[in-house]
Amino acid sequence: MVFGYSIQYPGSWLDVSKATGDGAGARSFSNEAVKDNRLTGLDEKGIVFRVAVAPLDGRCIPGGYENRPFTPFTASVDGVTGTVAGYDSRPPADPESNVFIDVGRANQCYMFMATTKSAATRDSFIPLFLQMLSTFRFGSGS
After folding, report:
1. Calpha distance 75→73 (Å, rounded)
2. 96-105 β-sheet, strand order
3. pLDDT grade, residue 93 (50/70/90)?
């Protein structure tokens, strides 16, 4: 499945989509050599940035993150405004912190997520996350 979008990410980053088990509608990039979907190979300074596209059925933007220890804010993805939210998950032995934004366009839900091993690392990457979002362009079919 080809969606025809474009996005710029740092040239030193790796495409880790096969390692993370991304399906046809997703791509993952990282500043470290991530080996699997459990993020093996990602250390405290690492990040995985994922773009996933799925059919839009109803509401694209998930709810329930309003009361998490992260203050949501709005951002734009190629002219479509959405809410950037964040959360922490997994047990303390295997921590994961995320920041994400989901936007709908042309019957597709575009999901952008950055995953790190700590909230501090996640927060330090938010400027880069927003910079990457600013380079995203929907394809002609979306």
Report:
1. 7
2. 14-15, 26-30, 48-55, 108-116, 96-105, 80-89, 73-77
3. low
Tokens of 138: 């929907």
Decide: pTM greater than 0.70.
yes
N-terminal to C-terminal alpha carbon distance within the chain: 12
Helix-, strand-, coil-residue percentages of the chain, each rounded to 5? 10, 35, 50
- pLDDT over 90, % of the chain: 51
Query: Residue 46 in contact with residue 30, Cβ under 8 Å?
Result: yes
Place of tokens 């995320």: 98
* φ/ψ (deg, to 5) at 68: -80, 160
